[in-house]
Protein backbone atom coordinates (compact mmCIF):
# COMPACT_ATOMS: atom_id res chain seq x y z
CA UNK A 1 0.00 0.00 0.00
CA UNK A 2 2.82 2.35 0.98
CA UNK A 3 4.71 1.53 -2.20
CA UNK A 4 1.65 2.36 -4.31
CA UNK A 5 1.33 5.74 -2.55
CA UNK A 6 5.00 6.52 -3.21
CA UNK A 7 4.70 5.53 -6.89
CA UNK A 8 1.54 7.67 -7.28
CA UNK A 9 3.14 10.66 -5.51
CA UNK A 10 6.27 10.39 -7.68
CA UNK A 11 4.12 10.20 -10.81
CA UNK A 12 2.15 13.30 -9.79
CA UNK A 13 5.40 15.10 -8.99
CA UNK A 14 6.86 14.21 -12.39
CA UNK A 15 3.80 15.43 -14.27
CA UNK A 16 3.78 18.71 -12.34
CA UNK A 17 7.49 19.09 -13.03
CA UNK A 18 6.97 18.66 -16.78
CA UNK A 19 4.17 21.20 -16.72
CA UNK A 20 6.25 23.80 -14.85
CA UNK A 21 9.36 23.34 -16.95
CA UNK A 22 7.19 24.22 -19.94
CA UNK A 23 5.53 27.27 -18.40
CA UNK A 24 7.64 29.98 -16.78
CA UNK A 25 5.85 32.31 -14.35
CA UNK A 26 5.83 36.08 -14.88
CA UNK A 27 6.49 36.94 -11.22
CA UNK A 28 10.05 38.10 -11.97
CA UNK A 29 8.84 41.18 -13.90
CA UNK A 30 6.75 42.41 -10.96
CA UNK A 31 7.79 44.06 -7.72
CA UNK A 32 6.22 41.65 -5.26
CA UNK A 33 6.29 42.04 -1.46
CA UNK A 34 9.14 40.33 0.39
CA UNK A 35 8.94 36.71 1.48
CA UNK A 36 10.99 33.56 1.92
CA UNK A 37 12.69 32.21 -1.19
CA UNK A 38 10.45 29.70 -2.98
CA UNK A 39 11.64 26.28 -4.13
CA UNK A 40 10.93 25.02 -7.64
CA UNK A 41 7.43 23.55 -8.08
CA UNK A 42 6.34 23.53 -4.42
CA UNK A 43 7.18 27.21 -3.89
CA UNK A 44 6.95 28.02 -0.17
CA UNK A 45 4.79 25.10 0.86
CA UNK A 46 7.64 23.68 2.95
CA UNK A 47 7.64 26.95 4.96
CA UNK A 48 4.12 26.15 6.18
CA UNK A 49 4.99 22.73 7.50
CA UNK A 50 3.61 22.44 11.05
CA UNK A 51 0.32 22.07 12.91
CA UNK A 52 -0.79 25.70 13.39
CA UNK A 53 -0.64 27.73 10.17
CA UNK A 54 -1.70 31.04 11.80
CA UNK A 55 1.27 30.80 14.20
CA UNK A 56 3.71 29.88 11.41
CA UNK A 57 2.52 32.80 9.27
CA UNK A 58 2.80 35.20 12.21
CA UNK A 59 6.38 34.06 12.83
CA UNK A 60 7.27 34.43 9.14
CA UNK A 61 5.71 37.89 9.06
CA UNK A 62 7.93 38.95 11.95
CA UNK A 63 10.86 38.29 9.64
CA UNK A 64 9.46 39.45 6.27
CA UNK A 65 6.99 42.13 7.26
CA UNK A 66 3.23 42.68 7.49
CA UNK A 67 2.78 42.27 3.73
CA UNK A 68 4.48 39.03 2.80
CA UNK A 69 4.62 37.13 -0.46
CA UNK A 70 4.53 33.33 -0.57
CA UNK A 71 4.22 31.07 -3.57
CA UNK A 72 2.08 28.11 -2.62
CA UNK A 73 2.50 25.58 -5.39
CA UNK A 74 1.82 27.82 -8.36
CA UNK A 75 -0.39 30.30 -6.51
CA UNK A 76 0.87 33.78 -5.71
CA UNK A 77 -0.27 34.37 -2.15
CA UNK A 78 -0.05 37.41 0.11
CA UNK A 79 -0.23 37.31 3.88
CA UNK A 80 -1.47 40.44 5.65
CA UNK A 81 -0.48 40.93 9.29
CA UNK A 82 -1.22 44.55 10.25
CA UNK A 83 -4.43 46.54 10.74
CA UNK A 84 -3.22 49.25 8.35
CA UNK A 85 -2.70 46.75 5.54
CA UNK A 86 -5.88 44.84 6.36
CA UNK A 87 -7.70 48.14 5.81
CA UNK A 88 -6.02 48.51 2.40
CA UNK A 89 -7.35 45.11 1.32
CA UNK A 90 -10.74 45.14 3.02
CA UNK A 91 -11.69 48.80 2.68
CA UNK A 92 -9.59 50.91 0.30
CA UNK A 93 -9.29 48.17 -2.36
CA UNK A 94 -12.21 46.06 -1.14
CA UNK A 95 -13.82 45.76 -4.59
CA UNK A 96 -10.66 44.28 -6.12
CA UNK A 97 -10.27 41.79 -3.26
CA UNK A 98 -13.94 40.85 -2.77
CA UNK A 99 -13.50 37.68 -4.80
CA UNK A 100 -12.86 34.23 -3.36
CA UNK A 101 -10.61 31.54 -4.85
CA UNK A 102 -12.66 28.67 -6.28
CA UNK A 103 -11.31 25.93 -4.02
CA UNK A 104 -11.87 22.22 -4.45
CA UNK A 105 -14.18 21.48 -1.51
CA UNK A 106 -16.62 24.35 -2.06
CA UNK A 107 -16.70 23.40 -5.74
CA UNK A 108 -17.77 19.88 -4.81
CA UNK A 109 -19.77 20.32 -1.60
CA UNK A 110 -21.21 23.80 -2.18
CA UNK A 111 -22.62 23.08 -5.62
CA UNK A 112 -19.86 24.64 -7.67
CA UNK A 113 -19.33 27.57 -5.30
CA UNK A 114 -22.92 28.79 -5.57
CA UNK A 115 -23.03 29.35 -1.81
CA UNK A 116 -22.53 32.79 -0.25
CA UNK A 117 -19.03 32.32 1.12
CA UNK A 118 -17.43 31.13 -2.13
CA UNK A 119 -19.61 32.63 -4.84
CA UNK A 120 -17.51 34.88 -7.06
CA UNK A 121 -18.00 38.59 -6.39
CA UNK A 122 -20.76 39.65 -8.81
CA UNK A 123 -24.50 39.86 -9.31
CA UNK A 124 -25.32 36.34 -8.09
CA UNK A 125 -23.37 36.85 -4.84
CA UNK A 126 -24.95 40.32 -4.38
CA UNK A 127 -28.44 38.81 -4.63
CA UNK A 128 -27.59 36.07 -2.15
CA UNK A 129 -26.15 38.59 0.30
CA UNK A 130 -29.33 40.62 0.01
CA UNK A 131 -31.47 37.59 0.83
CA UNK A 132 -29.18 36.95 3.78
CA UNK A 133 -29.31 40.46 5.17
CA UNK A 134 -32.99 41.14 4.51
CA UNK A 135 -34.50 37.69 5.00
CA UNK A 136 -32.40 34.87 6.41
CA UNK A 137 -30.22 36.53 9.03
CA UNK A 138 -31.95 39.85 9.75
CA UNK A 139 -32.43 40.90 13.40
CA UNK A 140 -36.15 40.23 13.05
CA UNK A 141 -35.47 36.69 11.85
CA UNK A 142 -32.89 36.09 14.60
CA UNK A 143 -35.50 37.29 17.10
CA UNK A 144 -38.10 34.94 15.63
CA UNK A 145 -35.88 31.97 16.50
CA UNK A 146 -35.85 32.86 20.20
CA UNK A 147 -38.28 30.09 21.28
CA UNK A 148 -36.13 27.51 19.47
CA UNK A 149 -32.99 28.85 21.16
CA UNK A 150 -34.67 28.77 24.56
CA UNK A 151 -35.83 25.20 24.04
CA UNK A 152 -32.41 23.97 22.87
CA UNK A 153 -30.59 25.81 25.67
CA UNK A 154 -33.01 24.36 28.22
CA UNK A 155 -32.28 20.86 26.88
CA UNK A 156 -28.57 21.59 27.22
CA UNK A 157 -28.66 22.79 30.84
CA UNK A 158 -31.03 19.97 31.77
CA UNK A 159 -28.48 17.51 30.33
CA UNK A 160 -25.72 19.13 32.37
CA UNK A 161 -27.88 19.10 35.51
CA UNK A 162 -28.40 15.36 35.29
CA UNK A 163 -24.61 14.99 35.22
CA UNK A 164 -23.99 17.27 38.20
CA UNK A 165 -20.91 16.34 40.18
CA UNK A 166 -19.40 14.25 37.39
CA UNK A 167 -17.06 15.18 34.57
CA UNK A 168 -18.79 16.40 31.41
CA UNK A 169 -17.12 16.81 28.03
CA UNK A 170 -18.40 20.29 27.26
CA UNK A 171 -16.64 20.46 23.87
CA UNK A 172 -18.71 17.56 22.58
CA UNK A 173 -21.94 18.90 24.07
CA UNK A 174 -21.35 22.40 22.66
CA UNK A 175 -20.81 21.00 19.21
CA UNK A 176 -24.06 19.05 19.21
CA UNK A 177 -25.86 22.10 20.66
CA UNK A 178 -24.80 24.46 17.84
CA UNK A 179 -25.36 21.93 15.04
CA UNK A 180 -28.72 20.93 16.56
CA UNK A 181 -29.77 24.55 16.91
CA UNK A 182 -28.78 25.32 13.32
CA UNK A 183 -30.77 22.31 12.14
CA UNK A 184 -33.88 23.54 13.97
CA UNK A 185 -33.44 27.06 12.60
CA UNK A 186 -32.92 25.75 9.08
CA UNK A 187 -35.41 22.89 8.91
CA UNK A 188 -37.96 23.70 11.60
CA UNK A 189 -39.18 20.77 13.67
CA UNK A 190 -36.79 17.89 14.13
CA UNK A 191 -36.99 15.51 11.16
CA UNK A 192 -35.89 11.91 10.89
CA UNK A 193 -32.93 12.74 8.61
CA UNK A 194 -31.49 15.42 10.87
CA UNK A 195 -28.97 13.32 12.80
CA UNK A 196 -27.70 11.73 9.59
CA UNK A 197 -27.39 15.14 7.96
CA UNK A 198 -25.48 16.62 10.90
CA UNK A 199 -22.97 13.78 10.98
CA UNK A 200 -22.47 14.03 7.18
CA UNK A 201 -21.97 17.77 7.31
CA UNK A 202 -19.49 17.44 10.17
CA UNK A 203 -17.53 14.92 8.11
CA UNK A 204 -17.62 17.18 5.03
CA UNK A 205 -16.52 20.12 7.19
CA UNK A 206 -13.51 18.09 8.37
CA UNK A 207 -12.60 17.37 4.73
CA UNK A 208 -12.99 21.04 3.81
CA UNK A 209 -10.45 22.06 6.43
CA UNK A 210 -7.81 19.73 5.02
CA UNK A 211 -5.15 20.66 2.51
CA UNK A 212 -6.00 19.95 -1.15
CA UNK A 213 -3.24 19.67 -3.73
CA UNK A 214 -5.76 20.86 -6.36
CA UNK A 215 -5.99 24.25 -4.61
CA UNK A 216 -2.32 25.07 -5.12
CA UNK A 217 -2.09 23.93 -8.75
CA UNK A 218 -5.34 25.39 -10.14
CA UNK A 219 -4.07 25.53 -13.72
CA UNK A 220 -3.23 21.83 -13.84
CA UNK A 221 -6.57 20.59 -15.09
CA UNK A 222 -5.98 16.88 -14.62
CA UNK A 223 -5.24 17.40 -10.91
CA UNK A 224 -8.58 19.21 -10.64
CA UNK A 225 -10.42 16.44 -12.44
CA UNK A 226 -8.78 13.63 -10.46
CA UNK A 227 -9.35 15.43 -7.13
CA UNK A 228 -13.00 16.11 -7.88
CA UNK A 229 -13.48 12.47 -8.75
CA UNK A 230 -11.85 11.23 -5.54
CA UNK A 231 -14.17 8.40 -4.41
CA UNK A 232 -14.27 9.71 -0.82
CA UNK A 233 -15.34 13.21 -1.87
CA UNK A 234 -17.82 11.96 -4.49
CA UNK A 235 -19.43 9.52 -2.10
CA UNK A 236 -19.79 12.16 0.60
CA UNK A 237 -21.28 14.69 -1.82
CA UNK A 238 -23.81 12.14 -3.11
CA UNK A 239 -24.86 11.20 0.42
CA UNK A 240 -25.27 14.85 1.41
CA UNK A 241 -27.28 15.62 -1.69
CA UNK A 242 -29.57 12.66 -1.13
CA UNK A 243 -30.12 13.61 2.51
CA UNK A 244 -30.96 17.17 1.43
CA UNK A 245 -33.60 15.74 -0.94
CA UNK A 246 -35.05 13.61 1.85
CA UNK A 247 -35.20 16.59 4.20
CA UNK A 248 -36.83 18.78 1.56
CA UNK A 249 -39.33 16.01 0.79
CA UNK A 250 -40.33 15.66 4.43
CA UNK A 251 -40.36 19.42 4.88
CA UNK A 252 -42.73 19.89 1.94
CA UNK A 253 -45.09 17.23 3.22
CA UNK A 254 -45.13 18.75 6.71
CA UNK A 255 -45.62 22.32 5.49
CA UNK A 256 -48.59 21.16 3.44
CA UNK A 257 -50.18 19.54 6.47
CA UNK A 258 -49.34 22.43 8.75
CA UNK A 259 -50.77 24.98 6.35
CA UNK A 260 -54.02 23.08 6.51
CA UNK A 261 -53.89 23.18 10.29
CA UNK A 262 -52.81 26.82 10.17
CA UNK A 263 -49.67 26.16 12.22
CA UNK A 264 -46.88 26.77 9.75
CA UNK A 265 -43.92 28.75 11.01
CA UNK A 266 -41.08 30.00 8.83
CA UNK A 267 -37.73 28.27 9.01
CA UNK A 268 -34.81 29.03 6.70
CA UNK A 269 -35.88 26.41 4.15
CA UNK A 270 -39.35 28.02 4.04
CA UNK A 271 -37.76 31.43 3.48
CA UNK A 272 -35.49 30.19 0.69
CA UNK A 273 -38.31 28.29 -1.02
CA UNK A 274 -40.55 31.33 -0.90
CA UNK A 275 -37.79 33.52 -2.39
CA UNK A 276 -37.46 30.90 -5.12
CA UNK A 277 -41.21 30.92 -5.74
CA UNK A 278 -41.54 34.69 -5.74
CA UNK A 279 -39.05 35.03 -8.59
CA UNK A 280 -37.67 38.18 -6.90
CA UNK A 281 -34.19 36.76 -7.11
CA UNK A 282 -32.50 38.16 -10.25
CA UNK A 283 -31.53 34.83 -11.80
CA UNK A 284 -33.86 31.95 -10.94
CA UNK A 285 -32.76 30.31 -7.69
CA UNK A 286 -32.36 26.57 -8.27
CA UNK A 287 -32.75 23.84 -5.66
CA UNK A 288 -28.99 23.28 -5.83
CA UNK A 289 -28.43 26.98 -5.04
CA UNK A 290 -30.64 26.60 -1.96
CA UNK A 291 -28.67 23.54 -0.87
CA UNK A 292 -25.42 25.50 -1.33
CA UNK A 293 -26.68 28.31 0.91
CA UNK A 294 -27.74 25.79 3.55
CA UNK A 295 -24.27 24.23 3.43
CA UNK A 296 -22.91 27.66 4.40
CA UNK A 297 -25.41 28.17 7.18
CA UNK A 298 -24.33 24.86 8.72
CA UNK A 299 -20.60 24.97 8.15
CA UNK A 300 -20.08 28.71 8.74
CA UNK A 301 -22.62 28.99 11.52
CA UNK A 302 -22.35 25.91 13.74
CA UNK A 303 -18.64 25.22 14.01
CA UNK A 304 -17.74 28.88 14.68
CA UNK A 305 -20.27 29.34 17.50
CA UNK A 306 -19.35 26.13 19.34
CA UNK A 307 -15.65 26.99 19.03
CA UNK A 308 -16.29 30.45 20.45
CA UNK A 309 -18.26 29.00 23.39
CA UNK A 310 -15.52 26.47 24.09
CA UNK A 311 -12.85 29.21 24.29
CA UNK A 312 -15.02 31.59 26.34
CA UNK A 313 -15.61 28.93 29.00
CA UNK A 314 -11.93 27.92 28.90
CA UNK A 315 -10.76 31.50 29.45
CA UNK A 316 -13.23 31.99 32.29
CA UNK A 317 -12.17 28.76 34.02
CA UNK A 318 -8.56 29.82 33.63
CA UNK A 319 -9.31 33.25 35.18
CA UNK A 320 -11.32 32.71 38.39
CA UNK A 321 -11.57 36.48 38.97
CA UNK A 322 -13.29 37.06 35.63
CA UNK A 323 -15.47 33.98 36.20
CA UNK A 324 -16.59 35.34 39.57
CA UNK A 325 -17.38 38.76 38.11
CA UNK A 326 -19.37 37.29 35.20
CA UNK A 327 -21.33 34.93 37.43
CA UNK A 328 -22.10 37.68 39.94
CA UNK A 329 -23.44 39.83 37.14
CA UNK A 330 -25.63 37.07 35.67
CA UNK A 331 -26.90 35.96 39.08
CA UNK A 332 -27.67 39.49 40.24
CA UNK A 333 -29.70 40.04 37.08
CA UNK A 334 -31.64 36.76 37.19
CA UNK A 335 -31.70 35.61 40.82
CA UNK A 336 -35.29 36.72 41.24
CA UNK A 337 -36.56 34.43 38.49
CA UNK A 338 -34.04 31.63 39.02
CA UNK A 339 -33.51 31.41 35.30
CA UNK A 340 -31.99 33.51 32.49
CA UNK A 341 -34.29 35.17 29.97
CA UNK A 342 -33.04 36.32 26.60
CA UNK A 343 -34.86 39.63 26.96
CA UNK A 344 -32.50 40.57 29.81
CA UNK A 345 -29.24 39.49 28.19
CA UNK A 346 -28.39 43.01 26.94
CA UNK A 347 -28.03 44.07 30.59
CA UNK A 348 -25.07 41.75 31.04
CA UNK A 349 -22.32 44.24 30.21
CA UNK A 350 -19.39 42.28 31.64
CA UNK A 351 -20.47 39.10 29.87
CA UNK A 352 -20.34 41.06 26.59
CA UNK A 353 -16.77 42.16 27.40
CA UNK A 354 -15.81 38.55 28.12
CA UNK A 355 -17.14 37.43 24.71
CA UNK A 356 -15.38 40.31 22.95
CA UNK A 357 -12.06 39.59 24.62
CA UNK A 358 -12.24 35.86 23.91
CA UNK A 359 -12.91 36.51 20.23
CA UNK A 360 -9.80 38.71 20.21
CA UNK A 361 -7.61 35.96 21.64
CA UNK A 362 -9.31 33.11 19.80
CA UNK A 363 -11.02 34.24 16.59
CA UNK A 364 -12.63 30.93 15.50
CA UNK A 365 -11.64 31.61 11.86
CA UNK A 366 -8.15 33.02 12.52
CA UNK A 367 -7.21 33.71 8.90
CA UNK A 368 -10.73 34.62 7.73
CA UNK A 369 -11.78 33.12 4.39
CA UNK A 370 -9.17 33.71 1.66
CA UNK A 371 -9.79 36.42 -0.91
CA UNK A 372 -8.58 36.72 -4.48
CA UNK A 373 -7.75 39.80 -6.53
CA UNK A 374 -9.88 40.30 -9.62
CA UNK A 375 -7.36 42.60 -11.34
CA UNK A 376 -3.77 43.73 -10.99
CA UNK A 377 -3.19 46.62 -8.58
CA UNK A 378 -0.54 48.21 -6.44
CA UNK A 379 -0.47 48.42 -2.63
CA UNK A 380 2.26 50.05 -0.56
CA UNK A 381 4.45 50.30 -3.66
CA UNK A 382 4.20 46.58 -4.44
CA UNK A 383 2.61 45.00 -7.51
CA UNK A 384 -0.25 42.64 -6.79
CA UNK A 385 -1.04 40.47 -9.84
CA UNK A 386 -4.55 39.43 -10.84
CA UNK A 387 -5.72 36.22 -9.14
CA UNK A 388 -3.43 36.69 -6.14
CA UNK A 389 -4.74 34.85 -3.09
CA UNK A 390 -4.88 36.94 0.08
CA UNK A 391 -4.77 35.57 3.60
CA UNK A 392 -5.53 38.04 6.40
CA UNK A 393 -4.09 36.78 9.67
CA UNK A 394 -6.77 38.22 11.99
CA UNK A 395 -5.44 36.15 14.90
CA UNK A 396 -1.94 37.67 14.64
CA UNK A 397 -3.37 41.18 14.19
CA UNK A 398 -5.49 40.92 17.32
CA UNK A 399 -2.43 39.85 19.35
CA UNK A 400 -0.05 42.40 17.89
CA UNK A 401 1.89 44.07 20.74
CA UNK A 402 2.04 47.30 18.73
CA UNK A 403 -1.73 47.62 18.99
CA UNK A 404 -2.64 45.76 22.18
CA UNK A 405 -1.13 45.99 25.65
CA UNK A 406 -0.43 42.60 27.22
CA UNK A 407 -1.73 41.07 23.98
CA UNK A 408 -1.70 37.45 25.15
CA UNK A 409 -3.50 38.17 28.43
CA UNK A 410 -7.24 37.71 28.96
CA UNK A 411 -8.40 41.16 30.12
CA UNK A 412 -12.11 41.72 29.33
CA UNK A 413 -11.89 45.22 30.90
CA UNK A 414 -9.78 46.40 27.96
CA UNK A 415 -13.02 46.78 25.98
CA UNK A 416 -14.68 48.88 28.68
CA UNK A 417 -15.67 52.22 27.11
CA UNK A 418 -14.09 51.08 23.85
CA UNK A 419 -15.79 51.91 20.56
CA UNK A 420 -14.48 48.72 18.93
CA UNK A 421 -17.33 46.47 17.83
CA UNK A 422 -17.79 43.40 15.63
CA UNK A 423 -18.47 45.34 12.44
CA UNK A 424 -14.86 45.30 11.22
CA UNK A 425 -14.49 49.08 11.17
CA UNK A 426 -11.39 49.00 13.35
CA UNK A 427 -9.05 46.64 11.54
CA UNK A 428 -7.09 45.63 14.61
CA UNK A 429 -10.14 43.62 15.70
CA UNK A 430 -11.76 41.58 12.92
CA UNK A 431 -13.03 38.22 14.27
CA UNK A 432 -15.94 38.40 11.78
CA UNK A 433 -13.84 39.78 8.92
CA UNK A 434 -14.61 43.11 7.28
CA UNK A 435 -15.63 44.92 4.14
CA UNK A 436 -18.11 43.52 1.65
CA UNK A 437 -17.42 39.93 2.64
CA UNK A 438 -17.91 40.45 6.38
CA UNK A 439 -19.77 37.65 8.14
CA UNK A 440 -23.55 38.14 7.68
CA UNK A 441 -24.32 35.85 10.66
CA UNK A 442 -22.98 38.01 13.51
CA UNK A 443 -26.35 38.52 15.23
CA UNK A 444 -27.43 34.89 14.92
CA UNK A 445 -24.03 33.64 16.10
CA UNK A 446 -23.96 35.97 19.12
CA UNK A 447 -27.55 35.19 20.10
CA UNK A 448 -26.79 31.47 20.33
CA UNK A 449 -23.58 32.12 22.25
CA UNK A 450 -24.93 34.66 24.76
CA UNK A 451 -28.00 32.75 25.92
CA UNK A 452 -26.24 29.45 26.48
CA UNK A 453 -23.25 31.10 28.14
CA UNK A 454 -25.43 33.10 30.55
CA UNK A 455 -27.41 29.96 31.44
CA UNK A 456 -24.31 27.86 32.05
CA UNK A 457 -22.85 30.55 34.31
CA UNK A 458 -26.11 31.14 36.14
CA UNK A 459 -27.07 27.55 36.89
CA UNK A 460 -23.64 26.05 37.62
CA UNK A 461 -20.26 26.60 39.21
CA UNK A 462 -17.53 24.87 37.24
CA UNK A 463 -14.64 22.83 38.62
CA UNK A 464 -11.71 21.20 36.92
CA UNK A 465 -11.40 17.44 37.42
CA UNK A 466 -8.48 15.70 39.13
CA UNK A 467 -7.51 18.64 41.30
CA UNK A 468 -6.12 20.59 38.30
CA UNK A 469 -5.33 24.20 39.04
CA UNK A 470 -7.37 26.72 37.04
CA UNK A 471 -4.37 28.61 35.76
CA UNK A 472 -2.88 25.35 34.46
CA UNK A 473 -5.79 24.58 32.14
CA UNK A 474 -4.32 23.37 28.86
CA UNK A 475 -5.13 25.81 26.03
CA UNK A 476 -3.44 24.02 23.10
CA UNK A 477 -5.13 24.70 19.76
CA UNK A 478 -5.80 22.40 16.86
CA UNK A 479 -6.20 23.62 13.30
CA UNK A 480 -9.33 22.81 11.32
CA UNK A 481 -12.17 24.72 9.68
CA UNK A 482 -12.12 26.64 12.96
CA UNK A 483 -9.29 26.63 15.50
CA UNK A 484 -10.62 24.65 18.45
CA UNK A 485 -9.14 23.27 21.67
CA UNK A 486 -6.90 20.30 20.99
CA UNK A 487 -8.14 18.51 24.10
CA UNK A 488 -11.82 18.55 24.98
CA UNK A 489 -12.95 20.88 27.75
CA UNK A 490 -13.80 18.54 30.63
CA UNK A 491 -15.44 20.20 33.62
CA UNK A 492 -17.51 19.26 36.66
CA UNK A 493 -20.79 21.19 37.01
CA UNK A 494 -22.00 22.05 40.51
CA UNK A 495 -25.58 23.42 40.54
CA UNK A 496 -26.17 26.90 41.99
CA UNK A 497 -28.53 27.00 44.97
CA UNK A 498 -30.81 29.65 43.51
CA UNK A 499 -31.15 27.91 40.15
CA UNK A 500 -34.69 27.01 39.15
CA UNK A 501 -33.28 23.57 38.28
CA UNK A 502 -32.35 23.01 41.93
CA UNK A 503 -35.60 24.49 43.22
CA UNK A 504 -37.68 22.24 41.02
CA UNK A 505 -35.42 19.35 41.97
CA UNK A 506 -35.88 17.93 38.52
CA UNK A 507 -36.00 19.13 34.95
CA UNK A 508 -39.22 19.27 33.00
C1 LIG B 1 -19.05 33.27 16.40
C2 LIG B 1 -19.62 33.03 15.26
C3 LIG B 1 -19.04 33.36 13.91
C4 LIG B 1 -17.79 33.80 13.56
C5 LIG B 1 -16.61 34.06 14.46
C6 LIG B 1 -17.79 33.97 12.11
C7 LIG B 1 -16.70 34.40 11.38
C8 LIG B 1 -16.71 34.61 10.01
C9 LIG B 1 -15.59 35.09 9.25
C10 LIG B 1 -14.23 35.44 9.82
C11 LIG B 1 -15.96 35.16 7.95
C12 LIG B 1 -15.10 35.62 6.78
C13 LIG B 1 -15.25 37.12 6.59
C14 LIG B 1 -14.27 37.70 5.62
O1 LIG B 1 -13.76 37.01 4.75
O2 LIG B 1 -14.01 38.93 5.74
C15 LIG B 1 -17.33 34.71 7.88
C16 LIG B 1 -18.06 34.64 6.72
C17 LIG B 1 -19.33 34.12 6.65
N1 LIG B 1 -20.12 33.73 7.72
FE1 LIG B 1 -19.61 33.79 9.67
N2 LIG B 1 -19.02 33.64 11.62
C18 LIG B 1 -19.82 33.27 12.69
C19 LIG B 1 -21.15 32.89 12.62
C20 LIG B 1 -21.87 32.76 11.47
C21 LIG B 1 -23.25 32.34 11.40
C22 LIG B 1 -24.13 32.01 12.61
C23 LIG B 1 -23.58 32.30 10.07
C24 LIG B 1 -24.89 31.94 9.42
C25 LIG B 1 -25.81 31.21 9.94
C26 LIG B 1 -22.42 32.70 9.31
C27 LIG B 1 -22.38 32.78 7.94
C28 LIG B 1 -21.31 33.27 7.22
C29 LIG B 1 -21.29 33.39 5.76
C30 LIG B 1 -22.43 33.00 4.83
C31 LIG B 1 -20.05 33.94 5.41
C32 LIG B 1 -19.57 34.28 4.02
C33 LIG B 1 -19.84 35.74 3.68
C34 LIG B 1 -19.41 36.14 2.28
O3 LIG B 1 -18.43 35.61 1.75
O4 LIG B 1 -20.08 37.01 1.69
N3 LIG B 1 -21.41 32.98 10.19
N4 LIG B 1 -17.78 34.38 9.14
TrEMBL record:
Q: What is this protein called?
A: OLC1v1021862C1
Alphabetical UniProt keywords: Heme, Iron, Metal-binding, Monooxygenase, Oxidoreductase
Task: Give the family per the record.
Answer: Belongs to the cytochrome P450 family.
Cofactor dependence is on: heme
* Binding residues for heme: 439
GO terms for MF: heme binding; iron ion binding; monooxygenase activity; oxidoreductase activity, acting on paired donors, with incorporation or reduction of molecular oxygen
Give the organism, scientific name. Answer: Oldenlandia corymbosa var. corymbosa
Q: Which residues form a coiled coil?
A: none
Q: Tell me any Pfam family this protein matches.
A: p450
Do you know which InterPro entries this protein is assigned to? Answer: Cyt_P450 (IPR001128), Cyt_P450_CS (IPR017972), Cyt_P450_E_grp-I (IPR002401), Cyt_P450_sf (IPR036396)
